[in-house]
Amino acid sequence: MSALVNVPESAAPGEIVDIKVLLQHPMETGFRTGPDGKLVPRNIIHSLRCLYLGEEVFAAELFPAVTANPFFAFTLVAEMTGQVEILWVDDSEEEHRETRTLTVG
Amino acid sequence: MTPTRRQAIVMSLALPLVLRVRPALATPEEMQAEIDRFTGGAAIVEAGVELKIPALVENGNSVPVSVSAESPMTDDDFVEEIAIFNEVNPLPNTVRFRFSPRSGRAEAQTRIRLNGSQHVTAIARKSDGTFHSAQVNVIVTAPACRES
After folding, report:
1. Closest to B93 (Cβ–Cβ): which among A17, A63, A73?
2. B7 — pLDDT class (breaks 50, 70, 90)
3. Considering the domain boundaries, does residue B36 fall inside one?
């Protein structure tokens, strides 16, 4: 599963930085009928979390109303150099992870 | 007492309404019920939240949404969560954002599906237990969920 995670390379201490995430996923709602006339089973990313320095700074709970290939933009406060982790889970309950380093100073 | 002919006709007209199958769509009542579950029935202040959605949407399959709530985002006073509700999609829940003081701002963007023109409501829960909301009326010319 591919993902685009945009974290600035560097920031000043205390600066509020923008994080952007674009995940590749069909976000099948479970309300659509397939060509065979049967409902296509639901398969969505239902949880997205952003950890910075190991602590949750932002999270989202997704419902079928979120578009295919979900996009999220949010912010966090730069404190010190460390990892920004994006974790997401879809209906297969498998956790995916992308990590970026934010250099602060 | 046997019904008169007139009563029998009225009853037969009313019957199809009772048997009508409810479409698989959320209704304003279901949105309200979900909002009550989120707030626990607490009062909601209609201020302090900004919900940005285009007023006229051509493609309901991808509608940009931006939501923010006024808050200093300190450890003592921050926005814990913002939930977005809709009244016409199959489910009243749309998306929920959870923040922490280290988010810096109670602000997030995403893209959602809207199955028709409707009101979309954002409700923020602050760390002091108060709820704040904003509502937008969206006109959708090509709804989502209609492709088979």
Report:
1. A63
2. confident
3. yes
Domains of chain A plus CATH, in order, are 2-104 (2.60.40.10)
Asked whether the CA dihedral A78, A83, A84, A89 is positive or negative, the reply is negative
> Taking chain B, what is the end-to-end CA distance rounded to the nearest angstrom?
51
If one counts the domains in chain B, the total is 1
Max CA pair span of chain A:
58
Contact A71 B94 (CB under 8 A): no
User: Does residue B7 fall inside a structural domain?
Assistant: no
**B115 lies in some domain:** yes
The pairing of strands A95-104 and A10-11 is: parallel
Query: Does B113 contact chain A (CB < 8 Å)?
Result: yes
Domain of B122, in residue numbers: 23-142
Interval B99-124: pLDDT, tens: 999 999 999 999 999 999 999 999 99
Q: Helix, strand, or coil here: B35?
A: helix
Two structure tokens written together for A84: 């920004």
**Does position A4 have pLDDT exceeding 80, yes or no?**
yes
Of A66, A73, A75, the CB nearest to B112: A66
Task: Determine, yes or no, domain membership for B104.
Answer: yes
ipTM for the whole predicted complex goes beyond 0.85: yes
CA distance B67 to A19: 15
Dist CA B9 CA B6 (whole Å): 5
Lowest mean pLDDT among A29-33, A58-62, A87-91, B93-97: A29-33
pTM of the entire predicted model: 0.88
